[in-house]
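To assess whether the prediction recovers the assembly geometry, we first specified each molecular entity separately, as shown.
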Amino acid sequence: MTRHGFVIDLKRCYGCYSCSVACKAANHTPQGVDWAKCVSAEIGTYPSALRQMLPLVCQQCAEPACMDVCPTGATQQDENGIVTVDPDLCMGCKTCMMACPYGARQTVSTFETYFPDAEGELDPYEAYCLEQWELKNGFGLATKCDYCKDRIADGKDPACVEACPAKARTFGDLDDPESEISILIRRNAGFQLNPEFGTDPSCYYLPPR
Amino acid sequence: MKMKAQTKWGWDHAIYLFLGGLGAATYVIGALAGYAGEAWLGISKVGIISGVIILAIGYVVLLVGLGRPMNAIHAMKCPGTSWISRGVIIVLLFVIFAGIHWLLTVFNAGGGLLPILGFIGIVMGFGVMLYTGFLLAANRPIAFWANPLLPIVFLASALYSGLLATLLLSSIFVPDAVEQMKFLAVHSTGLAVFLILAMALYIWGTHRTPEGRAAAEMLMSGQFSGMFWVGVFLMGLFVPLVLELINLYGMGGTAIGMHILAGILGLIGMLLLRQVILGCGVMARLQAARFEYVLPHI
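The predicted structure of the complete assembly is given in tokenized form:
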């Protein structure tokens, strides 16, 4: 079996948000939806203060809390461990958003243009993005990152992995002990976020400096 | 680091949680009154008829608040793991049995069937009052909700608001049932005291985690403190308790206006209770090595 997973090296990430932009471009996510977020935290005080970025994607948990609470069966897990949403089943109750410890589920009820002052029709690129979003996801449902499964099927890396200039992200098979990500996790003390929630995320992080 | 509460479940959810509990409790009180003899018939009708209507309004509010209401038809698919699925099944059974009970009561029919329907409706009604507490308590990242006392608080709040609503409506529709209303008023004061104690224990029980403490602080002295102290505690519990005690022990329970005033204030307070509990749903921070991160936009 294959279990798709991510390794994100926190030593390499410097918070350029290339991943966020690449995700938006690849998945046509509208305003208010950020499947590839990047959040920051600071510790210490001057002159010993430190700032560390934390890139977030859906953790594609082996035991997804969002799937357990979903009443309609819209949240599903495929044979490779990727958690997806069926737009024809999701009723937009937002329970998954409350259950996910990682903020991976996001909803948007209406389309908002990036150019509210522009008159006339939508910019052609925005119109294209809107059309694609309505085709694959839509409004009112709780959407999520699916590790760019269409790109994976074509043998490509997810868009955020390909775009990361610092090579902080690695995508691969967690079930293969010889895969690059399995070796990275073993050699660098890779860890999961908040394991106390018992969801067994498929996204591992390598420690910061 | 300032922690953030969820904002996606707001007033529409609070109104549903309130009306769901209120409707079920009002029905249960009406159905129970049906077993108490001829003198309780008027109050029983008031409870059964209004309870089912209130719950139906609550469900309409819930459906309107959904992102894709048309897909709600699939909501019963996962009762093995989802509290919403379980809740929909419980509410559906409640609506079927309480609805038949309602129709027979409206048309003064049913005879021997009423006690049986009432019993099933009462069991399902308690299910409706409890499941919303379990629904919130199942969300582990929100420590303020993931508290075993929450279903108890929701049950007590529902029963208390059901008693107040029955008193309020009985004061208007069956004002002659003074002794019966006195009985309900005594129980409403007892439930108000119980609810104050249950809420104190509930809030105390949230102090195990940083996000639980942040939520309790938000409730007691932060963003929701005004709504909590003035709306929930003073208006919803303390003033109705004092009004009913004055009415019962100072005026012999005959002051109908006091039942109505206590009912209105108490019902507003119990709606606000649902809203402050939802609004104080602080999400757990993410931890990566020595760093702690607050999730944005939840």
